[in-house]
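A common beginner's mistake is to predict each chain separately and then try to dock the pieces by hand. The better habit, illustrated here, is to supply every component at once so that their relative placement is modeled jointly.
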Amino acid sequence: MLTADVTVERRDLTVQVDLTVPAGTVVALYGPSGAGKSTLLAAIAGLVPLHAGSVWLGDRLLATGSAARRHAGGGLPLRDRGVGLLAQRPGLFPHLDAAANIGYALPGGGRDPRVGRLAEALDLTDLLAARPGRLSGGQCQRVALARVLAAEPRVLLLDEPFTGLDPELRARVSMLLAEEVARRQVPTLLVTHDLADAQRGADRIAVLDKGRCLQVDDPVRVVAAPATVRVAALVGYRALVPARLVQGAPVAGGRGAPPSSSGPLVPPGASILGVHPDRLVMDAGRASQAPVTAWLQATVTAVRAAGAGMQAEMELQDGSIVPLAIAPGVPVPAPGERLPVGVADAPWFDAAGDLVGERSEAGARLQGWG
Amino acid sequence: MTERSGPQAHGATADVRGGPGSDPLAAATLPGRLGAGTGDNLHIGYRRVSLRFAGVTGVVGAAAVLLVLLGPLGALLAHLTPGTVRAALAGPGALQPLVTSVEASAVSLGVLVVVGTPLAWAMARGRLPAPRAWETGVLVPLLMPPLVIGLLLVFLAGPATPVGQGLAHVHLSASNTFFALVVAETYESAPYYVLGAEAAFAGVDRELEEHAALLGDSPARAFRRITLPLAAPGLASALSMAWARAIGAFGAVIIIAYHPYGLPMQIWVTLQQSGLAAALPFALVLLVVALPLPLVAYVWTARARSDTVAGPSGVADVAPAGWATRPVRARR
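With all components supplied together, the output reads:
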C-alpha cells in the first residue's frame, strides 16, 4: 500500500495531497493541466523534494519532508525506492537500442528473456534493435513502459501512459497494465487529463485541481456525485443552472410532451443544478422512463453529425451551451426551435457550490449510474 | 518552410564557428524580405535566386576562410622534400625531443583526466560552492599569456620558493626538468580540457541519470553506464584539444623547462642556430603528432551526434556537447 501525505512547493503552486493507494489497485490522478498531477508523481518518485509530509510504501519510508530526516536526503535513495516511473518525457537512453533500454535493470540486459516477452506484449519486437532516435513518440512511450515494467517495481507511477497511442494499442497497453497490477499486486498511480482513460484504467479517481485533491471516489460516483461544482465542471458537467430556471414539467408548446407527474424535485438548500451532456434527454415520451430530475427550456443553436448519429447544440436559459445527442428515432430539431430538455438524475449544489444531499445511495440506486 | 529554415540554419552554423560567412548570408536574404508584396510567384522566385546567391557567396566565403587557415600548412609542405625531412631526423638524438614531448604530454593528459574530469563534472552539475569562482579559476590560465604563466610559475614553484623547497623534499624540481615540462604543459592545456569536459557533462540530460537511478543504479553505476558514454564524444574532443595544446606548449615551457628539449623547444633552438629551413622538418613532426588525435575525435563526435539526435521522441537535447560549441565556451 502506498500512502502519500505530501506538500510540494512549486514556483507557482503548492501541491498538498493526502492519498492512499492499496496494493493491486490503480488510482487515477485526474485534473486539468497545471493541476499538479505530474509534480505529485515526481515528488512520490523522489525527483522533487517534499516541503512537508511523507511517502510510505508499506512500512518503508520512501520520502519525508520533516526537518529531522531531511539531512539524510529526505528518505531512501532513488535506487532503493523500487519506484517504476513512466514520465511524460520517456527519457530513453539514446545510446542504447530499444532492447538494452528495456533490459536496463535486468541482469541479462537486452538479452534477458523478459525483454522479449514485454516487447511482444507491447508490439515492439521489430523495433528492439533500433535506437530511440529512430523511434516515433508512441514507440518511445511503449519502450519506456516496457523498461519500467521489466524492472518489476514495487510501485508504479504512470504519467499519461496512453498518450500518442492509437486505440488498438491503448487497449493492449491498458490490458497489460491491468494484468501486471493484478499479478504483482502493485499500488499504481496513473496521471491523466482524459476522464475516459481514468475510467478505463482505474479503480478510483482522485480529482486534482490547483494542487488540491477535491474528491477521491470510484469512477462512477466521481461523475454521478461530484463533491463540488468545480469537480462537476472538471468531470464534464457543461452547465450549472440556477434553480429558478428549473421546471417540474416540460413547458407546453414544445413537442406536445405530456406534463411530468412529479413537481420540481428541488431538494432543500439546493440552488444550482449540474447539467451533464450525457444525462440530457429530449424526447419526453422516452424521458418518462428515465429518472428526470428537472426540465429546462432550451433553444437549438446548431445541429450537426456526430459519429453515427446527430447532435444538437442547445442553449439553455442561463446562456450556457450544451451538446445533446439525438437518440435514434427521435426527429431532428431545426436550429432556432425552442424545446424542453430533461435532465436525468442530475446533482444539486447549494449556493456555496457543495453537493446537496447524500447521493451515495441515490447514485447507486438509480438505473444507468451503477 | 524550407525557404525559411535554409538561411537560418546556415546562419546558425556560421555563428557557432564565428566565421565571416554569416554576414553575406544574412545580407543576401534581406532583398527577399523587401520583395514581399510583389506577387507570390515573383516573390518566391526572387527568394530562390537570392538564396542561390547566398549559397554561392557562402561557399566562396567559406573556401576563402579555409584557404587562409590552411595556407601555412600548404606552405610548410611546399617547402619540404622527403629528403630534407629524412636528413633532419636521421641526425643523432634528433628524435629525442619527440619522445620527450609525447611522454610529457601523455603525463599531463593523465593528470588532467584524473583531476579535471571530476572537477568538470562537479562544475557541470552545480555541485561546487561559488561556481563562478571555479569557472574563472579555470579560465585564468587560458586568458593569461603563456609567457606570463611561465614567469609566475617561476615565482610560485622556483627552487627558492617554499613550494620549490617542498618539491625538493620529494626530489622534484620545477625548473628545467621533465617535471617542469609537465607542469608547464598542464597549465597551458588544463582550461581546454576542463571547459570542454564541463560542456560535455552539461549536455547530458539529468533526467536520464534519474531514470537510471530509479531503475536501480547507484550514482557511480549510472555515471559509468549513462553519463560517461553520453559525454564521451565531448570528452574525447576536449582531451584531443588539450593534447594539441600540451604538445605544442611553448610560452611557459621556454621559461621554466628550457631543458629537456621537447619538440617546440627543438624547433625554436634549431631556428635560432641553423635557420628557418632546418627547423621546418621538426615543425612537420610536431604537426604529425599533434593533429591526428583531434581530427579523429572530431569525426567521432560528429558521428555520435548524428546517431543520438532524435526525431520526435524528445531525446534530441541529449546530444553530446562537442567540438563546435566548445571554442565558443572557451572564448567567453
